[in-house]
Specification:
Blueprint: E1 28-30, H1 39-52, E2 55-59, H2 65-80, H3 83-87, E3 98-100, E4 104-105, E5 108-109, E6 113-118, E7 123-126, E8 136-139, H4 148-158, E9 193-194, E10 201-205, E11 210-214, E12 218-220, E13 225-227, E14 241-243, E15 268-270, E16 275-278, H5 310-338, E17 356-362, E18 374-377, E19 383-388, E20 394-397, E21 404-406, E22 414-418, H6 420-425, E23 435-437, E24 445-452, E25 459-460, E26 478-479, H7 480-490
Parallel strand pairs: 1-2
Antiparallel strand pairs: 2-22, 3-6, 4-5, 6-17, 7-8, 9-10, 10-11, 11-16, 12-15, 13-14, 17-24, 18-23, 19-22, 19-24, 20-21, 20-23, 25-26
The chain binds 2-oxoglutaric acid (AKG) and fe (ii) ion.
2-oxoglutaric acid is lined by residues 358, 360, 374, 379, 386, 388, 394, 435, 437, 447, 449.
Length: 510
Amino acid sequence: MGEVDEAFIQAVEHRPKLTITEAEGIPLIDLSISNSNSIEALVEEIGDASKNWGFFQVINHGVPFETREKLELASRKFFAQATEEKLKVRRDEVNPLGYYETELTKNVRDWKEVYDLAVKNPTVIPTSPEASDNGLQELVNQWPEYPSELRALLLLVRFGAAVKHSVLYSIWCSRSCEVRYPIPAGAISPLSGYGIDQKGYRCYDPIAKKLRTSRHVAFLEHLPYYCLPASSSSVSKEDVLMSDPFSSSASSFGSDSPHVPDEGIESIRVSETVVEPEEAQPSSTLVQDETPSQSGPPGISDDVDPTTSQVEIRVAYEEDAKEMEKLAYKLLELISLSLGLPANRLSEFFNNHTSISRLNHYPTCPIPNLALGVGRHKDGGALIILAQDDVGGLQVKRKTDGEWVQVRPTPHAYIVNVGDIIQVWSNERYESVEHRVMVNSEKERFSMRFSFNPNHDVMVEPLEELITEQNPAKYRAYNWGKFFANRRRSNFKKLGVENIQISHFKITEE
Ligand SMILES: O=C(O)CCC(=O)C(=O)O
Ligand SMILES: [Fe+2]
């Protein structure tokens, strides 16, 4: 076992089998409505899957693939950072959002690191799980900061030092990163150039020693931009021009009217993603002629750069969260209909929802037979939507026989599961099913989980329409915000007891 901390070791009965028995997978549901796929048929499929599995995958869900891909790339970059950078946004007792690498599930440590973000920023939840405490707290997302070196650079730039190239760092952008390394001595401007005869900005990456053309560039608004004539193949320091690519004179490239630095260095604009790396041989001059960049899907196959940017992850996240929210409402309506309720029956619980997204990274593990990426658990929210990469590892406990079944990755699909809240609302017509994540020794894995959670003040209880004399309420009402605050808190203070569970509110039969 070498130097692996024993906190990761699962009890014998919970260790995963490394040979996975191929089994019938969870249902794959096409969300598109057509002549051959009526809404009634779809609702029935959703109902059956929720009842029999508690899990299903969806395709034709309406979320643009680029949105998900951008966030996945930003997530890879986030986790590829030095630990010291990630720890700067680590969650703590006050703010449970952010980076965390020592999570426990059922008191055993998970082989993973996570980055939690609230969909609504800020998100309001109770300050404490104590019933007597009426205090509320705002959860605020923690975004990666600019590295301090870059901050120093930005200040320098503001004070007009930008053209003293030898002291500069690059604001480099093919993957909208700020490069944190000193420019090699003698290299002339690493700053981005803007070409009118091609789509995109030209940026010199001093690490890869490549000139890149990209439209995926983070611009620091209110700062001067230094541009290079598009036609030149060799440019001297004096040719570097100051220009604002967003100003109306941007097309008249080479405008020498300087953009006056303004206050505020935090505000950033990101353009469309089109990445087209180009080889170049930088030496004492910057610009090599480039072939025009082509439109196309952003590539995520490039090596992940160990830098990340506040801008990139934030923009990618916020775009993705909007799409996830739309999909979550759609699924909620389908679930509502499948329970025989009006489509909007559950929406009122979500007008100020407390949904949380989690970016997961499961590094390769030397003891995949003894540890788990996430130990067996049920999800506490209402509906959970998960994007997994192509590595695989999620296992669902099959209701029919309790066997762990692998959820095989389906490109572009989302995995959906019914959480505890839907189990309670549906008075157990649907069940929140146990699942876990296996890790492996060869490939790291990434996933992104969106947990659709109601407003903090919602009292969760079986819906009255679903209660009858023969089928009385199986749960007492509980306050979602308090439940949530309890879960969040107990992640920090493990007292050797289990997290709060809906079973604590179960009405036991006499
Ligand atoms: O990464 C996965 O596949 C699932 C993670 C999960 O179940 C969770 O974070 O609750
Ligand atoms: Fe889960």
